[in-house]
Design a protein that fits this description.
alpha+beta; Double Stranded RNA Binding Domain; transcription; membrane; tRNA processing; iron
């Protein structure tokens, strides 16, 4: 079978007029072999949808709009045609028909020859269209702009960009297109088919046109140069788009407003601001976006992906602009100089912000107050303060705002990711602040332990709670420029344990206070908490080790010990002892005047020890204070939380301790907006607060932790949670627990400085905060004061001058920043007012007297 007609290297007509070229012909000559003469010439017309005949063909694919080819294929002639046709199908916009070999001959058609290239074409209309490729004739004028086209189909496609007509809609996602070929290419995205593979790299594409665009990236040559500058490009299309930067041409007009664009892609994106179309949907949540780039940036919030790496440090970022801004902190180069002063800045945004400080011209005056504003946009925003206009409404609840930034901040209440609680937001902000300042960073605690793969933790050194005793080596390696991450969990006899050895050296934040962890992990299975996941099973330290650590602390000048634990009451269950056993042993080594504070405990584990706990809290060297979280007063909510107690259990703890210890301070926690909490459940919690009027109440709005059972429950509306939190906060502020103590005299152990540095902070027997005048020599002392005023969280006092100031410490406290736990000679405090100084003098005198009497007796006996 021979290919007849014109030379196969000649090009065919590139674009056929859709109005006149409804049928396309190919010329087939069939012979016995390659050298035989032509026996028969047949010309046939077939529809695109018909199957090819059951014979092997070799043919010219007229409809390729590209070039001649000679491809042999047994059964699917249309596949060869489509491989050529699809590349320019978008530009031609006509319905192609191809030939199928059959026995019917076309009669009456007279072959016509092109006078420019001698190509033979069978129809007059097709010949006219073909000759435009030689003459350059473009008879079709766009009625919206000055562009002209050679083919009516190309004109129709172009005009749809002006009119916005997109009649071809995807049945799967609703996205619309102005050409059926674009719809077909889009539908391949849903099917996931990527049939077009690049021969130079492993990439594949769902359309031939995208493959062709990609292949230009492999070209070393850029033959198309800009007419206005020296830039070169791979394609003429890219060159034309670039040249519009110089010419200012913006041929694409928005049909809804007066804006124009230099690229059709810009028009398409802009038009969505009018139509509200957001075709790009997030696969992780219900958010949708107008562009694929916005979608990619958003999805990195879920995946934690940070593809942009800093060239100077291990930090990575989710956006290119962020990494560029970050990299400027590594460089001393500040290329953006202010024209008014000598200052220069690393980024243009910093420069623009600085230049506003020099602007004295404020031409826009407010008609209400006369204030001058620098810009018309700023004036519009300012006027809303007077008019009350709030044009930006929340799409979730309808609340309106005067500026968009306030709206976005508000909408986070509805859309914020579950793991972004306020405390965690603060944690993230501190990390970002340190990174932006170029500091070395080491993280520790429950958050990195529970979410080690979180995006904002990538590239940062971190040490989990089970490996905290290795924090020094992690810091040392980080300072060398390495990133170290230790999240492994220690195990003992198959159980996960955590925490450092008690005998490790440490630096106390306050040299007067020893924070002593008595165990790690917990026994509970609370549905909202990740403590067990982060810290492992309950692991109690031996009593003798804890007592020895406490004794050493007092020898280093400590006068107050805080016992800490995830659940103090559970201490010893795993090693066969009780919390009561430990407390009595610790009391034995506490010097006179020093104090011990017991940490948080849940109701179930102290119910059986209530009487003993009451006696211990009544000891003069133990604060009459206990932290017992209730979380909710509703039994059904407590059951859903798996708290292992009921409201009656909590009330029993409260009533017994208040009866045995009048004035005892009991602090508690409540959670507002747990997923299964009803209005009635919440009212029970409110009533509990009214009944006991807790002097210390920690109010927490519920935020689901990823991976916990509570996070998988249907959540309450964010506004409802916020409302309940506010209601119980108002109730807590309505009573004043210390008013009845006005005028009382109290002994106070002074251990801290107030936040404003104006007072000493001390605590009385009930661990109530008392502010003491900041006189010299009071820190670390036990003083008697008189209460002169009260506040919600504190009492103000004056010193009773006639009373002696007592120093409880048995040794001089360590200096601020000095390492605790190292071998050290104990230095006895020789302060003249110390209790121990006169006592030591008396003891030494008594010993000398006793020795003299003994010697005298021996002499008498002799």
């Amino acid at each position: 079978m021979d290919l007849a007609g014109e030379d196969t290297n000649k090009t065919k007509d590139e674009n056929l007029d859709s109005s006149s070229a409804d049928e396309v012909f190919i010329k087939v000559e069939i012979g016995e072999d390659d050298d035989s003469e032509v026996n028969t010439q047949k010309e046939t017309v077939v529809n695109h949808d018909k199957e090819a005949a059951d014979v092997t063909h070799t043919a010219i694919c007229e409809s390729t709009v590209d070039e001649y080819c000679t491809i042999s294929f047994p059964d699917e002639l249309d596949q060869s045609e489509n491989s050529h046709y699809s590349s320019l199908k978008d530009e031609t916009n006509f319905n192609t028909q191809i030939l199928e070999a059959d026995d019917d001959s076309c009669q009456g058609d007279i072959p016509l020859e092109c006078k420019y290239c001698s190509k033979v074409i069978l129809k007059q209309s097709a010949l006219l269209v073909h000759e435009r490729t030689h003459t350059g004739e473009k008879p079709y004028l766009c009625k919206f702009c000055d562009k002209v086209f050679a083919y009516s189909g190309t004109l129709k496609t172009h005009e749809s960009l002006h009119t916005g007509q997109r009649p071809h809609q995807c049945k799967l996602c609703g996205k619309t297109f102005n050409r059926p070929s674009l719809l077909k290419a889009h539908q391949n995205l849903h099917s996931g088919e990527e049939a077009y593979e690049c021969k130079q790299c492993p990439k594949a594409f769902n359309t031939y046109s995208r493959l062709k665009t990609h292949q230009t990236t492999h070209l070393s040559e850029k033959p198309f140069q800009c007419s206005f500058c020296e830039k070169t490009f791979n394609t003429a299309h890219c060159t034309k788009n670039h040249e519009r930067i110089h010419t200012g041409e913006k041929p694409y007009h928005c049909p809804y407003c007066t804006r124009t664009f230099s690229r059709v892609s810009g028009l398409i994106v802009h038009r969505r601001t009018h139509t509200g179309e957001k075709p790009y949907k997030c696969q992780f949540c219900e958010s949708s976006f107008t562009t694929s780039n916005c979608l990619k940036r958003h999805e990195r919030v879920h995946t934690g992906e940070r593809p942009y790496q800093c060239h100077f440090c291990p930090k990575a970022f989710s956006q290119l602009s962020t990494v560029r801004k970050h990299e400027s902190i590594h460089s001393d180069v500040t290329p953006y100089g202010c024209q008014t002063c000598d200052k220069s800045f690393p980024t243009i945004s910093c420069l623009k912000a600085h230049e506003k400080t020099h602007c004295t011209d404020r031409p826009f005056k407010c008609q209400y107050c006369g204030k001058g504003i620098m810009s018309a946009a700023g004036l519009r925003i300012h006027l809303r303060k007077h008019t009350g206009e709030k044009p930006y409404a929340c799409k979730y609840c309808g609340k309106a705002f005067s500026v968009t930034c306030s709206l976005k901040l508000h909408e986070r209440i509805h859309t914020v990711a579950p793991w972004k609680s306020p405390a965690e937001d603060h944690f993230r902000n501190e990390i970002n602040k340190a990174q932006q300042n170029g500091k070395h960073l080491v993280l520790s605690g429950c958050v990195p332990q529970a979410q080690p793969r979180a995006g904002y933790l990538q590239g940062v050194s971190a040490v989990g709670v089970q490996q905290i005793d290795r924090v020094v080596e992690v810091v040392e390696e980080t300072l060398k420029g390495h990133t170290v991450r230790l999240f492994g969990q220690k195990k003992s006899e198959g159980k996960k344990i955590g925490g450092a050895r008690l005998d490790l050296p440490k630096i106390r934040k306050n040299p007067l206070i020893e924070i002593l962890a008595i165990n790690t992990g917990c026994l509970n299975q609370c549905t909202y908490c990740k403590t067990k996941h982060a810290r492992g099973e309950l692991g109690s330290y031996p009593i003798e080790d804890l007592v020895e650590r406490a004794r050493q602390s007092f020898q280093e000048g400590v006068c107050e010990v805080w016992l800490t634990s995830e659940d103090t009451g559970a201490y010893g269950i795993d090693i066969g002892v009780t919390i009561v056993d430990l407390l009595w042993k610790l009391v034995e080594v506490i010097p006179e005047g020093c104090m011990m504070r017991i940490g948080m405990t849940n109701p179930p584990y102290i119910l059986q020890h209530l009487e003993e706990i009451a006696r211990i809290l009544n000891h003069p060297r133990v604060y009459a204070f206990l932290h017992v979280p209730v979380q909710s007063a509703s039994d059904s909510v407590l059951m859903d939380m798996k708290r292992e107690y009921c409201q009656a259990d909590f009330k029993r703890v409260m009533d017994v301790l208040k009866e045995r210890l009048p004035g005892v301070t009991i602090a508690t926690d409540v959670i507002c907006g747990f997923p299964t909490e009803t209005e009635e459940d919440f009212e029970e919690t409110m009533e509990l607060v009214r009944q006991y009027k807790f002097p210390s109440l920690f109010i927490n709005q519920f935020f689901p932790r990823p991976g916990t059972p509570a996070a998988k429950m249907p959540q309450l509306d964010a506004q409802e949670k916020k409302k309940r939190t506010k209601q119980i906060s108002v109730l807590f502020k309505s009573y004043h627990p210390y008013d009845h103590k006005l005028g009382e005299r109290q002994n106070v152990l002074v251990t801290e400085v107030s936040h404003d540095k104006q007072f000493w902070v001390g605590h009385n027997k009930f661990y109530e905060q008392v502010l003491v005048p900041k006189e010299d020599g009071l820190l670390g002392k036990m003083v008697e004061v008189e209460i002169i005023s009260t506040g919600k969280h504190y009492m103000m006092s004056k010193i009773v001058k006639e009373k002696e100031i007592f120093t409880p410490s048995v040794a001089t406290p360590l200096a601020q920043g000095e390492i605790s736990g190292l071998p050290k000679k104990v230095v006895v405090d020789s302060h003249p007012h110390s209790f121990w100084f006169p006592l030591s003098v008396i003891l030494v005198g008594a010993a000398i007297l006793y020795e003299l009497i003994r010697i005298a007796r021996q002499l008498v006996q002799r």
